[in-house]
Write a structure and sequence with these properties.
38% helix, alpha/beta, 7-stranded mixed beta sheet
Length: 764
């Protein structure tokens, strides 16, 4: 029978359609997992995805748009297959990023967080979050994201915060969390330790200084050249002729804290020098020459100064060779008393200038060279990162547990956190797709350091650590111990009613907060209801960008193994990075960013999604071309025109395909439709989205429109009406995960009787 639906308008208008359709889906509860359970799936499987939580400071960028489109394709496909499907959304509190945003707002208002104090400042952040914190959620809805917004989480929600406390206490009781003085990356402007993701690099043109360090004691009589470089004959020094070793450095001011000179044990130039001592210029301290395999023989002279308290590599060398750690730079970026009276209180740049002048006066600078390197800077303040010896809290990554937790009934595997991740990847329990990114994670985990989990900011999860106030006050007055070093503390979920140390003070909670990645590592289960944890853990796939494989993916894996007993996801899909057309990184500040919302306003969400996936061919980085979105708009119009043609020809959109009386062209198009459906299922299952949308496009535009419709446009038999209508009905289902709005609109107008979003993928 022919459709009696109202005649379609001449043109498709996404602006008049998309918001209305989305509201219908959301109001109808179609994003909830229970709504997808239908008779066509008597024993539904579960399928779930967790949205990588965007920062509450954020707005939608092309990386978010790509991630959301891929996720929504999978969610819609599995929902139509009758699986009990849910996409868990949420946002991250983004500690330092959010604090920075509110700091700037307060500055405009003529005040600062220091004037407000911690409690008032945190109140201000919550006010800001309420007003601006969910911008990206509304933008994701514009993209058509069919996430279950009734399950939206925030990493500072009370339920989530409870999990964070539990996890900290669990690790502490196992002996895995400890407090120690170690070298970390420090921002002198933000006044906090930083994670690797908060560090950027910019090219800096500086000087490489070649400095003589005088040798002490007996000098070898061989003719080994000390400080030889093939292209620098003027830095050659024979042990017989000169009693010094030449080191090269870009930071001469840190030599005031040197405790060794290091060479590579394979470097023949220095084989007779290892174990001898040099006199540290200016300071006059004797320091040893040590051999360490981490030294790059091609840098400078192959001999480097070792300042364990102010360089991450030097800190490792210092630990291996049991060298002293001398702190000559403080948290404000100024020289300490350990640097010497003439340098104390100077800024780093001032100290460098003075050290160089002193070395020149002593005749110890052999030469300087222009030198270009990547300078580590804070992503928020653009201030150079200062590696500093600092009191922080750390999570052990490579040591085995010592104590069984009392709070969690989790059987310890006896493995370290690092080894649990490595074994999970090696066994295939978690697959990284594509496989070449597996090496990125395993290499990082094999060489992982203990994780610095504490931050000196005000916005975030405050450490569940409580100090005896009297001890803090005594240490502050005596100035013999920094308050953070006080030993009288306990780890607990709530502030103790009575101090177990002095028995009459109100204990003071640690001022530090946890690294944002500590809480986001719990994302696959924290903040979920017990029922959702039972039903949807582990999730089905994690979809993420490559830049957070180490900082997030690895940490979620060991958290899931530790607290849920199994990996949080069997598949990790690493998607492409969206670059500018000429291959540069997109940046709003540089004016090279593309706003997905602007594209939606111009072309519609379906066209934008089409343009993104059209260019997502495997994991090759996408060199963004807006022409693909324009092609998506044309494709949407083509589909609309095909539907209008079918409607005017009396197409039957509801009947099953006829068993007999089919012409050769009917049989050919139905065969190609069956192949397309199989290829779509294979492509989505293999995460091959770009190739799949190309095949759908080719079928609709060329096989259906150019060939079949052209061949049959003069036919009036019932079979052609059924075949044409049935093909279009199936195309709407096949295309729905990719272009959900226009397909739902056409389904409602032409077929009706339900909603396409939960229509059976395989049924008729």
């Amino acid at each position: 029978m022919s459709s009696m639906s109202e005649e379609l308008p001449k043109a498709y208008d996404p602006k008049a359609t998309e918001d209305r359709i989305y509201k219908m889906w959301e109001d109808g509860g179609f994003f909830k997992p229970t709504s997808a359970t239908k008779p066509y799936s008597l024993n539904p499987k579960t399928y779930s995805i967790h949205l990588p939580p965007p920062n509450v400071t954020g707005s939608l960028h092309m990386g978010h748009a790509l991630n959301a489109t891929i996720s929504d394709i999978l969610i819609r496909y599995h929902r139509m297959n009758g699986d009990e499907t849910v996409w868990f959304p949420g946002t991250d509190h983004a500690g330092i990023a959010t604090q920075s945003v509110v700091d700037k707002q307060l500055k405009k208002e003529g005040t600062s967080r220091w004037e407000l104090g911690r409690e008032k400042f945190v109140e201000k952040v919550w006010e800001w979050r309420k007003e601006y914190g969910d911008i990206i959620i509304s933008q994701l809805k514009k993209m058509g994201a069919s996430a279950d917004w009734s399950r939206v989480r925030f990493t500072m929600d009370p339920e989530y915060a409870d999990w964070v406390k539990k996890v900290f206490i669990h690790y502490y009781e196992k002996g895995w969390i400890y407090r120690g003085k170690r070298v970390i990356s420090w921002c002198t402007a933000c006044q906090t330790s930083l994670s690797d993701l908060e560090i950027e690099y910019k090219e800096e043109k500086t000087k490489l200084y070649y400095i003589k360090y005088p040798l002490q004691g007996e000098i070898a009589t061989s003719t080994t050249e000390v400080g030889t470089r093939d292209d620098n004959s003027d830095v050659i020094a024979s042990e017989e002729k000169q009693s010094y070793i030449i080191v090269a450095t870009t930071r001469p001011e840190t030599m005031l804290g040197d405790t060794a000179v290091a060479v590579n044990p394979k470097d023949d130039r220095y084989k007779n020098m290892v174990g001898k001592k040099v006199l540290l210029p200016i300071v006059g301290r004797e320091i040893p020459i040590v051999a360490d395999e981490k030294i790059d023989m091609t840098f400078g002279t192959g001999a480097v100064k070792v300042t364990p308290a102010h360089d991450l590599l030097d800190a490792e060398i210092g630990e291996r060779h049991k060298l002293p750690f001398i702190q000559i730079i403080n948290e404000r970026g100024k020289m300490t008393a350990e640097a010497g009276k003439e340098f104390e209180g100077l800024k780093i740049a001032e100290a460098r200038e003075k050290v160089v002048a002193e070395l020149e006066k002593l005749g110890l600078i052999v030469k300087t060279e222009d030198y270009t390197h990547n300078l580590a800077i804070c992503s928020r303040s653009a201030t150079p990162i200062e590696p500093l010896l600092s009191d922080q809290w750390f999570l052990r990554m490579s040591e085995h547990p010592q104590v069984q937790s009392l709070k969690f009934k989790v059987e310890s595997s006896g493995k370290s956190l690092r080894d649990s991740v490595l074994e999970t990847i090696k066994s295939g329990e978690t697959k990284i797709i594509p496989k070449n990114f597996e090496k990125v994670l395993t290499s990082w985990m094999e060489n992982v350091r203990d994780w610095c989990i504490s931050r000196q900011i005000w916005w975030g999860h405050q450490l569940p650590v409580f100090f005896c106030k009297k001890t803090l006050e005594a240490n502050t007055k005596s100035q013999t111990l920094n308050p953070k070093q006080a030993e009288d503390f306990i780890v607990a979920a709530e502030r103790p009613k009575t101090c177990p140390f002095c028995e009459n003070c109100e204990m003071e909670q640690s001022q530090d907060v946890l690294d944002t990645w500590f809480s986001s590592a719990l994302w696959p289960f924290a903040g979920l209801s017990e029922e959702d944890q039972k039903k949807f853990y582990p999730s089905s796939v994690l979809i993420t960008a490559r830049d957070i494989i180490n900082l997030w993916v690895g940490r979620m894996i060991f958290s899931g193994l530790e607290f849920k007993g199994e990996t949080p996801f069997p598949d990790v899909l690493i998607h492409a990075t969206v670059l500018t057309k000429d291959g540069k990184r997109m940046s709003k500040s540089l004016g090279t960013g593309i706003d997905p919302i602007g594209l939606i306003e111009k072309y519609g969400a379906d066209a934008t999604r089409f343009g993104i996936i059209w260019q997502a061919m495997g994991t090759q980085d996408i060199h963004w071309d807006e022409a693909a979105v324009q092609a998506g708009k044309k494709f949407a119009n083509k589909l609309w025109n095909i539907a209008r043609f079918a409607q005017t020809r009396g197409a039957d959109f509801k009947s099953d395909f006829p068993k007999s009386g089919l012409t050769p062209e009917d049989q050919e198009i139905l065969g190609k439709l069956a192949d397309l459906k199989k290829e779509t299922e294979r492509g989505i299952g293999a995460y091959d989205f770009g190739q799949t949308i190309h095949k759908i496009y080719d079928f609709v535009w060329h096989e259906l429109a150019d060939v079949y419709i052209e061949k049959t446009k003069n036919r009036t038999d019932e079979n052609v009406k059924i075949v044409l209508g049935g093909i279009l009905a199936d195309v709407l289902k096949i295309l729905h995960p990719f272009m959900p709005f226009i397909t739902e609109e056409l389904y409602q107008r032409l077929i009706g009787g339900g909603v396409l979003i939960t229509e059976s993928w395989s049924g008729r």
